[in-house]
């Protein structure tokens, strides 16, 4: 190319066209030709320019830490500003392809500038214009940022968690919507993080560097000016956004006036800024953003016009993803709290699987967070601490604490149960044990023995239908356990062991069943009821269990899993007409401390406690088995969530109950115990030649008495199974579930048995008390019921037990009476047998 051709090229293709021909000829005559291979640096940022470059052919790219990258095309003049202003180079330039360039070295260019001052004049003017353009661009960007700032979404919160086919489909729908950048409707129930799915679409698209804004439709102005802008006023959000992505969140809450605007926007991608009344309508503008609509309800006007529809499945149909979600939330929350990551047990997961999660992921996250707070440094999330709210309504409950504020006051006072326990029971129990060991050995002469068999048993049994497991709140065995625990920690400061829950859940019940069976045999073979020191040994045996396990494990492990009396109490407590529970709504929504469970310092109205001694949470109790009515939770709760309710007796047995096989075994053991206590009557009635004075036959007959009664219910269940074969519509429960139907009868049988002792001997306590100390109590008042009265009361109790057992069976099975006839007959037969041995006529 000669000089003239070069001048023409410069005039036509480069920014030097501002200069006159004479100057261009002077420049052209000094240009040196350069060829540079691809991927070479021709100028380097922050260095002095080598000279002025003019790109003739090829592609260059500018790279800089501060400025955005951009490409340069043929005709670009390089380093002009730097040479005129005598500054270092602003950006590194790299050849993307082989490039041809012209170069005027710095010295030669400076000579030209001094020779032709028009060069600097022309380009100074251009520089001023550029600076003006840049600053107005900057002002516009700042204004735009100010408008968008409150709505900007910087990133997606998380990806799609899970491996189910629903999760896979969701991922592919997001990918598709991100690729085509057309309108999307994300639709689903509350709590499914639909706005996060919208964000994933944006950040998965090619426009991920453009802004993403989220508008909450419930707060949009009905005039639409915030969204569309005003004629002559500041730009609306759509204009300020430009090519980004616009999420209309909660579109079901959109003001109705704006629905046609959104429909038009989705359909035509155009809108008109809002004009004042009387002014002509503003010309339409084009929306360059991708529009994503998020809704909880179907909106027919939008459903039909969007290009992509994503239906987000609720958590209850994605149960396969539940484990992944739980683990994800555990890591997230543990990381944010800076604690070691916890593990979730399979039982806990199973419990969650059975729940429907009406509030979906939001609810699951709250649940995991609550469980982690309750962990107290533990590393295992068990089913006791991760519990969903129950969906069943709390029907037929009357909170006695609200009805009788005095009761609340008493139960929160130090009197219940600490002052009773430490002020009275502790000493009284020691005294009773002493009297049993050192006093006379028969019931007619030892008041402690009389108290145990003729008072304690009937009172505890009568108490179950009214106050459940209340005995355990004032039980002396455990008071000694608590004393041992405190004393041993004081003497040997250490951290008590955590509960081996899995083993205890599997085997604890069977341990207490076995111990109870041995105690019953011991009682029968060694005549404990009439041998004071052996009765004392029995009491000490249970106390020793409580003391040993309290010294080893934290809280009341013995009471929760191992105590035979506790097992019986927990079982019969299910029939109670009262219950202690907490309001699940309050616990889930308001509580962050869970002091009822964990314990802790005073907070608001909540007192300082060590937390539930049984590691039960009052809001998750499904039956009375695991609550000893100690009222620790009532004292600890700062939110008045704990209730003490009056309820239909035993309602949990046909609503929330979970059956346990060891408990059913214990139930029939208690049934057998009634027959065991009446072996002489059985012998007479059946006219059998038993020799109960010989230990070995006595032992075998006792074992038979304990175990044979269960065969009647088993036979009845076989018949029920037979009926099921004939009537396929009849859905029968398992034996373990239906067996709880016998519970009222078993309680009635035991009560009827102990009524005789209570009503014939209990009233002799005063003369017996004197006889204990070798004094003559003749003449002291005695209250003894007539045998006919006792018989009448025993019979009434048995009939009441029979009727309630039949009703309970119906309630548990929820089947027609005729299908359950075998069990009803079994209840009838057992009632007759019990009547025969207890009442006797
Ligand atoms: S479970 Fe046993 S030791 Fe514990 S409080 Fe109840 S009766 Fe007493
Ligand atoms: S009972 Fe009270 S302390 Fe316990 S979780 Fe509920 S509100 Fe919190
Ligand atoms: S739930 Fe409450 S009343 Fe029941 S044992 Fe636990 S702390 Fe005591």
From TrEMBL:
SUPFAM superfamilies in the cross-refs: 4Fe-4S ferredoxins, cAMP-binding domain-like, P-loop containing nucleoside triphosphate hydrolases
InterPro entries, sorted: 4Fe4S_Fe-S-bd, 4Fe4S_Fe_S_CS, AAA_lid_NorR, cNMP-bd_dom, cNMP-bd_dom_sf, NosR_regulator, P-loop_NTPase, RmlC-like_jellyroll
Ranges that cross the membrane: 420-439, 459-483, 503-521, 533-553, 662-679, 699-720, 732-755, 788-808, 820-838
Gene3D superfamilies: 1.10.8.60, Jelly Rolls (2.60.120.10), P-loop containing nucleotide triphosphate hydrolases (3.40.50.300)
Sequence ranges assigned to domain Cyclic nucleotide-binding in this UniProt record: 15-130
This protein's name: Sigma-54 interaction domain protein
GO terms classed as biological process: regulation of DNA-templated transcription
Any one of the GO CC terms: plasma membrane
Domain 4Fe-4S ferredoxin-type: 617-647
Domain (Sigma-54 factor interaction) ranges: 160-373
Swiss-Prot/TrEMBL keywords: ATP-binding, Cell membrane, Iron, Iron-sulfur, Membrane, Metal-binding, Nucleotide-binding, Transmembrane, Transmembrane helix
Organism: Lyngbya aestuarii BL J
Keyword Iron-sulfur: yes
Compartment annotation: Cell membrane
GO MF annotation list: ATP binding; iron-sulfur cluster binding; metal ion binding
């Amino acid at each position: 190319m000669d000089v003239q051709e070069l001048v023409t090229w410069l005039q036509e293709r480069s920014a030097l066209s501002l200069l006159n021909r004479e100057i261009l000829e002077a420049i052209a005559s000094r240009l040196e030709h350069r060829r540079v291979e691809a991927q070479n640096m021709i100028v380097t940022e922050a260095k002095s320019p080598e000279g002025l470059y003019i790109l003739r052919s090829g592609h260059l790219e500018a790279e800089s830490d501060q400025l955005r990258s951009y490409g340069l095309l043929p005709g670009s003049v390089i380093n002009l500003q730097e040479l005129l202003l005598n500054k270092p180079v602003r950006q590194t330039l790299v050849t993307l392809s082989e490039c041809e360039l012209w170069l005027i070295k710095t010295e030669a260019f400076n000579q030209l500038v001094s020779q032709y001052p028009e060069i600097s004049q022309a380009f100074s003017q251009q520089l001023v214009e550029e600076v003006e353009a840049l600053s107005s661009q900057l002002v516009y960007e700042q204004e735009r940022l100010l408008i968008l700032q409150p709505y900007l979404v910087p990133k997606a919160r998380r990806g799609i968690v899970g491996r189910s086919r629903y999760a896979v489909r969701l991922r592919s729908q997001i990918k598709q919507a991100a690729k085509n950048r057309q309108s999307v409707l994300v639709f689903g129930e509350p709590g499914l993080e639909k706005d996060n799915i919208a964000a994933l679409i944006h950040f998965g698209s090619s426009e991920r560097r453009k802004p993403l804004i989220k508008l909450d439709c419930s707060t949009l102005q009905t005039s639409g000016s915030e969204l569309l802008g005003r004629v002559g006023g500041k730009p609306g959000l759509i204009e300020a956004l430009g090519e980004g992505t616009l999420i209309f969140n909660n579109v079901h809450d959109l003001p109705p006036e704006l629905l046609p605007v959104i429909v038009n926007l989705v359909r035509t991608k155009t809108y008109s800024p809002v004009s004042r009344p009387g002014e002509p309508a503003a010309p339409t503008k084009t929306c360059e953003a991708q529009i994503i609509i998020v809704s909880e309800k179907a909106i027919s006007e939008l459903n039909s016009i969007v290009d992509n529809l994503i239906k987000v499945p609720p958590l209850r149909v994605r149960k396969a993803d539940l484990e992944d979600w739980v683990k994800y939330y555990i890591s997230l929350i543990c990381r944010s709290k800076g604690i070691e990551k916890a593990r979730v047990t399979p039982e806990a997961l199973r419990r969650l699987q059975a729940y429907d999660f009406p509030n979906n992921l939001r609810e699951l996250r709250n649940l995991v967070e609550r469980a982690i707070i309750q962990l107290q440094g533990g590393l295992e999330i068990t089913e006791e601490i991760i519990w969903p709210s129950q969906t069943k309504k709390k029907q037929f409950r009357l909170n006695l604490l609200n009805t009788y504020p005095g009761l609340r006051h008493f139960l929160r006072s130090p009197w219940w149960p600490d002052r009773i326990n430490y002020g009275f029971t502790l000493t009284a129990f020691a005294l009773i044990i002493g009297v049993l060991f050192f006093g006379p050995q028969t019931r007619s002469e030892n008041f402690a023995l009389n108290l145990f068999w003729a008072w304690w048993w009937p009172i505890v049994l009568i108490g179950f239908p009214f106050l459940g497991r209340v005995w355990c709140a004032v039980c002396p065995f455990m008071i000694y356990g608590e004393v041992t625990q405190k004393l041993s920690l004081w003497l040997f400061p250490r951290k008590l062991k955590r509960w081996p829950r899995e083993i205890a859940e599997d085997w604890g019940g069977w341990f207490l069943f076995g111990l109870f069976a041995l105690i019953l045999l011991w009682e029968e073979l060694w005549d404990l009821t009439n041998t004071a020191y052996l009765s004392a040994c029995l009491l000490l045996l249970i106390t020793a269990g409580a003391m040993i396990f309290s010294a080893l494990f934290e809280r009341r492990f013995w009471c929760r899993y191992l105590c035979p009396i506790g097992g019986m109490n927990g079982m019969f407590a299910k029939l109670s007409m009262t219950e202690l529970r907490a309001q699940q709504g309050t616990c889930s929504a308001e509580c962050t401390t869970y002091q009822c469970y964990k314990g802790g310092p005073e907070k608001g109205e909540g007192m300082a406690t060590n937390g539930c001694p049984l590691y039960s949470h009052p809001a998750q109790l499904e039956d009375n088995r695991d609550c000893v009515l100690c009222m620790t939770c009532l004292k600890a709760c700062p939110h008045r969530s704990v209730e003490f309710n009056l309820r239909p007796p035993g309602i949990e047995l046909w609503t929330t109950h979970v059956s346990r096989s060891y408990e059913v075994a214990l139930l029939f053991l208690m049934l057998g115990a009634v027959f065991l206590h009446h072996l002489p009557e059985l012998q007479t009635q059946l006219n059998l030649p038993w020799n109960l004075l010989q230990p070995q036959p006595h032992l075998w007959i006792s074992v038979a008495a304990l175990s044979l009664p269960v065969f009647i219910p088993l036979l009845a269940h076989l018949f029920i199974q037979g009926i099921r074969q004939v009537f396929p519509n009849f859905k029968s429960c398992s034996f373990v579930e239906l067996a709880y139907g016998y519970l009222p009868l078993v309680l009635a049988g035991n009560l009827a048995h102990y009524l005789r002792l209570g009503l014939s001997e209990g009233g002799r306590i005063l003369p017996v008390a004197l006889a204990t100390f070798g004094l003559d109590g003749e003449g002291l008042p005695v209250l003894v019921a007539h045998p006919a009265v006792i018989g009448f009361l025993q019979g009434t109790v048995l009939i009441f037990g029979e009727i309630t057992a039949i009703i309970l069976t119906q309630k548990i099975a929820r089947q027609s009476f005729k299908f359950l006839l075998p069990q009803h007959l079994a209840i009838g037969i057992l009632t007759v047998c019990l009547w025969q041995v207890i009442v006797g006529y």
